[in-house]
Amino acid sequence: MILAGDIGGTKTNLALFDEIGGTPPTPRAQGSYPSAKYDSLEAILRDFVGRQGGAAVTHACFGVAGPVVRDAVTATNLAWVVGRASISRTLGTQSVRLINDLEATAYGIEVLTPDQLHTLSEGAGGRMGHRALIAAGTGLGMALIYWDGARFRPAASEGGHSDFAPQNDTELELQRRLRREFGGHVSVERVVSGMGLVNIYNFLRDEKRSEEPEKVTREIEAAEDKAARIGAAAMAGESGLCARALDILVEAYGAAAGNLALLVKPAGGLYVGGGIAPKILERLKEGSFMRAFTDKGRMSKLAASFPVRVILDDKTALYGAARFAQLRG
Fold this sequence. Notes:
By secondary structure, this protein is of the alpha/beta class. It has helices spanning 41-51, 84-91, 101-109, 169-182, 194-206, 214-222, 226-236, 240-264, 276-279, 281-285, 288-294, 300-304, 316-328, and strands at 2-7, 11-17, 29-34, 59-64, 72-74, 81-83, 96-100, 117-121, 131-136, 140-147, 152-156, 270-273, 308-311.
């Protein structure tokens, strides 16, 4: 029995699997928990396993949003320290692995079928080579997926915390505001993420860059998940302000993905994961994401040669964590 987890700042998703093969498996059981309402991962695990009648877990792996150091992770956007030893005691098994959440997603890509992906660009097509992964959700993650000639080997990074690079005057003014707000360094995660969408919205609202109905403003102010409400209003055409905020996020997302592509040269494809992309897929299809992706000066032709695919299945990180538990356990 394999227990897999995808641990993020907003949600902790868990699933029990039997042995993982080469196609997306069906979980025996699945659960989703609001991360911030629990004081530890162990508390969630006790509840989840208890609801399955105390299922005997033999292998476990958790993809966690943050760097894994000495079998522990201080979660980036969550007040938890996730440690392998403590989880092992909670579950009663020594076969526990912790990996970065983007590594988990990267391992999960291997079992996806074509209908679980949407291709934004075919690129040059037909080439084997490295892959890259970028995923915006509560925060922003990036990973290299190295092709060694026989298999893909994911490698975690903290690329989401690299510098935000403004591409126009509006983004430059946004960066200046965020520098004041956060005391200096502005990471790309401050713009390309759920929190980033809220940051962009607040900037446009305070600078009176666009208008929106008072009803929508009140709903956003009252919302527990402001980013979700802003995104929904933008996609539904309820607010010009929200629509403009989402436009800026999409363009910055595309530019960041293009920067990652230049670092990795992913002939095997750049994959867009995370919770945001499937929700705004229609906006991604409109073209501004790919225009920003390929707007790389002398390297624009190279950037355009890489396939770009959006991951549609929100269980991909769970598939990957389960695969890693099996591969390494």
